[in-house]
Structure formats: structure tokens, C-alpha cells
């Protein structure tokens, strides 16, 4: 009986020791800062004139005579994102009862311009740094006589633009742009903005060799480029575990440090996240719900998954949002259970410390004990104490008998 109790106590102690070698958790976190930049619609209108074989800036002639052709080239240049343009021509005249300039006196206008109402619409999209000339010259009618002497005439041109992204004019209608509200541009730069380049593959990997989380690239919104009102954008982040152990990956966001202007952007842009086709979140980028850790699942060794995200920019955003920027941090973290292996002596390993089984990497416990295993440890401690106490009582009782 004594031998049996001693064996039971030893077994409990051995089991307890076995448990204490499984509590370590390895954890790591990775922050990816995603940048949001809103684009701008920005055009420039300058007038040129022919001088020989070259072009120079236009200057008003002091006087013209009947039958003369005046070189005048109104040029609309796009300085920012692709856009549609239109122009309105207003003629001024200091005499009411005498004929003045009219559209018929303009020449050199491309067939890409169509007149609808009081506007001329350019029927092709202007990309950045591209331009469109409204016309080339003004012809003074040869039949004009003495009654036009001293008459003061003018041609005023007003150019307007609207984004090409998410907008298609109807040139067959009376008003191709519809009832769009035209606003004064608010850009503070020359319109130079980052353009969308070659698409990059996005990934987060729990790397086996480095034993840490690795991301490529450092900005998961890089394929978005500069956003425009009404933009709908989708992309996929490849998530994988290349270690030899099961690992659970988590995701959450942070938007601290943003000013009111930036927060207004984050409050407006809608985000939807899927993990392997399962919807994890749908809402705005500033939602407190996103700041809570969400599990992306437990990944077995060499297992892969896809994190898909969708961004929707409000279509009703106007010029007040032009060139604004904001950041949102996506934070990935990992928990990996680690098991310690008892240290083996040189005699047991044959003098080879690199033999499998040698505990060369100590357990990391940055996340502390798993609550379930802590309870289990407590129970086993109680069992060990109870077995030991029972052994002492039985031993003492045996002496009395």
C-alpha cells in the first residue's frame, strides 16, 4: 500500500511537471499604416497666338480691320486627375444695335467639341497634362463697314471640369452633365498626385524562418492610388502560417492622432472585410468596433487564407475634400502555443547538443498563462497535495495498527 501511494504521488508530480512545460505562448504584432489620399480636379486656361511657326501668349490687338483673322487659341490643360471639360463663350460689345462677334466667326474648332445649350462640351476625357484647344482664330467679317469703326469687342471664356471617375456624360441630351453643381477649386498644389501604378500583391505571413509576422508592402491601400468621389475599390491580403505549429492570427485597427479633417474622411469611407468569404465587418473606417481584436482563425502549419477588403468613397463628396489625406493602422497579431522539451544531458545526446530534443530556444511567455491551463495547474496541485496527505495519514495509521 505504501509503495502504491508513493507511486501515485510520483505520477502526480510527473504529470504536474509535464503540464508546466506547456504554458508558454509566443506572441508578435505587426502594424501596417494605410494611407488614404483624395484626388483633385484642376484645370488651367491660357490663351496663345501664332507668331510665325511658334506659339506665344496671347495679347489683345490694338485694332483690327474687316476681313482680318486674329490668332487666338484658348487652351484648357488638365493639371490633376482625368476629367471632362466644357467651356462657355461670352461675347461683349459696347454697341447694342451693331453686329458683334458670334460663334460663326470662330474657326479651327475640333470636331471633339459639341455645343449643348450655352456650353461647348469636349467629348473626350482629358488625362493629366493633356490639353484641348477650344478654337484657333477669330475672323472679322469683311462686310463690316464704317458703322463698326471704334467698336469695342471682347471674347470671354469660362472653362469648367468634372471628374472622369464614376461619371459618364450624356452628350445626346440637352445638358450632358446633368444638374451638377459647379464649385470653385480649392486645391493648394499644382495638382500633382500619386497615380495608381502596377498592382502589388498584399500579404501577411507568420514566417517560419524569422519566427515573426511579416507584411508586404507597408501600405495595403497602395493599389488604391488617389481616391475620387464614388470610387469602389477591392483588394486581397494573402494570410499564411509558414511555421511548424498551429497559430491563431488576430486583426484590429487604430486611428489615433488624426485631426478633425482626417476623421471626417474616416467617418465617410465605408469598409467591408471578409476572411475566406466570411464577412467580419461592415461599417466606417473610424468605428470603435474595429479597434477590438478579431480572430482571423487558427492556421495550421503551411495553411493559407485570404483577407478581402472593400472600400467605398461617398459619391456626394465635393471640392472641400480635394487633396485631403488620412491614415488608418491595421494591426495584426499572432498567438502560438509553445511546448518546452526537457533538457537532455550530454550523456543522453551522445555529446551532440544539436540533436533533436534539446531545448535550445527557451519558452517566451509574453502573454502569460492560458486561463484554462492555469485552472488545470491549480487542480493538479491540489491532487498532488491530497495524494501526499493521504500517504502520510495512511503511513501514520499503519504504525498505530
Provide a compact summary of the structure.
With 401 residues, the protein is mainly β. The protein is 14% helix and 36% strand.
Structural class: mainly beta
Q: Nearest-angstrom radius of gyration?
A: 38 Å
Question: Mean of the pLDDT scores?
Answer: 81
The H/E string reads HEEEEEEEEEEEEEEEEEHEEEEEH
* Approximate helicity band: 10-25%
Please report the distance between the alpha carbons of the first and last residues: 14 Å
The main sheet comes to: 6 strands, mixed
Number of spatially distinct domains: 3
Number of DSSP-assigned strands: 22
The share of residues in extended strands comes to 35-45%
Tell me what the structure shows:
This protein is mainly β and 401 residues long. It folds into 3 domains: 1-23 and 369-401; 26-39 and 193-337; 43-163, Immunoglobulin-like, CATH 2.60.40. Helix content is 14%, strand content 36%. It has helices at 2-20, 260-268, 371-400, and strands at residues 25-38, 43-51, 54-57, 69-71, 73-78, 83-93, 106-107, 113-116, 119-122, 131-133, 137-139, 153-163, 202-207, 212-216, 226-227, 232-241, 247-254, 270-275, 278-284, 294-299, 304-312, 325-337. The protein has a 6-stranded mixed beta sheet. Helix 1 packs antiparallel against helix 3. It starts with a helix and ends with a helix. 19% of the residues are buried. Residues 7-23, 188-196, 340-369 and 396-401 have low confidence and may be disordered.
Amino acid at each position: 500500500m505504501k509503495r502504491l501511494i508513493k507511486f501515485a504521488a510520483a505520477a502526480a508530480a510527473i504529470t504536474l511537471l509535464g503540464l508546466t512545460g506547456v504554458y508558454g505562448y509566443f506572441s508578435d504584432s505587426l502594424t501596417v499604416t494605410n494611407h488614404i489620399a483624395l484626388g483633385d480636379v484642376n484645370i488651367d486656361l491660357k490663351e496663345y497666338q501664332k507668331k510665325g511657326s511658334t506659339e506665344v501668349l496671347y495679347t489683345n490687338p490694338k485694332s483690327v480691320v474687316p476681313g482680318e483673322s486674329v490668332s487666338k487659341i484658348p487652351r484648357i490643360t488638365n493639371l490633376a486627375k482625368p476629367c471632362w471639360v466644357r467651356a462657355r463663350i461670352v461675347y461683349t460689345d459696347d454697341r447694342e444695335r451693331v453686329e458683334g462677334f458670334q460663334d460663326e466667326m470662330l474657326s479651327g474648332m475640333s470636331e471633339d467639341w459639341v455645343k449643348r445649350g450655352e456650353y461647348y462640351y469636349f467629348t473626350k476625357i482629358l488625362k493629366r497634362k493633356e490639353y484641348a484647344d477650344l478654337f484657333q482664330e477669330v475672323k472679322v467679317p469683311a462686310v463690316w463697314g464704317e458703322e463698326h469703326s471704334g467698336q469695342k469687342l471682347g471674347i470671354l471664356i469660362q472653362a469648367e471640369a468634372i471628374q472622369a471617375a464614376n461619371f459618364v456624360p450624356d452628350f445626346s441630351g440637352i445638358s450632358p452633365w446633368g444638374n451638377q453643381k459647379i464649385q470653385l477649386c480649392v486645391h493648394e498644389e499644382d495638382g500633382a498626385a500619386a497615380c495608381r501604378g502596377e498592382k502589388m500583391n498584399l500579404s501577411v505571413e507568420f514566417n517560419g524562418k524569422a519566427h515573426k509576422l511579416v507584411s508586404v508592402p507597408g501600405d495595403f491601400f497602395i493599389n488604391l492610388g488617389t481616391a475620387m468621389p464614388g470610387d469602389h475599390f477591392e483588394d486581397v491580403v494573402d494570410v499564411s502560417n509558414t511555421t511548424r505549429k498551429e497559430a491563431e492570427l488576430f486583426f484590429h485597427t487604430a486611428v489615433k492622432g488624426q485631426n478633425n479633417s482626417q476623421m471626417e474622411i474616416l467617418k465617410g469611407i465605408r469598409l467591408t472585410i471578409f476572411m475566406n468569404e466570411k464577412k467580419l465587418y461592415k461599417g466606417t473606417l473610424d468605428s470603435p468596433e474595429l479597434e477590438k481584436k478579431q480572430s482571423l482563425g487558427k492556421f495550421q502549419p503551411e495553411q493559407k487564407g485570404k483577407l478581402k477588403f472593400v472600400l467605398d468613397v461617398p459619391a456626394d463628396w465635393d471640392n472641400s475634400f480635394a487633396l485631403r489625406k488620412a491614415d488608418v493602422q491595421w494591426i495584426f497579431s499572432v498567438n502560438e502555443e509553445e511546448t518546452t522539451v526537457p533538457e537532455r544531458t550530454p550523456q543522453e545526446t551522445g555529446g551532440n547538443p544539436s540533436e533533436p530534443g534539446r531545448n535550445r530556444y527557451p519558452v517566451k511567455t509574453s502573454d502569460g498563462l492560458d486561463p484554462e491551463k492555469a485552472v488545470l495547474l491549480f487542480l493538479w496541485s491540489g491532487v498532488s497535495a491530497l495524494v501526499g496527505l493521504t500517504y502520510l495519514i495512511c503511513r501514520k495509521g499503519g504504525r498505530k495498527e
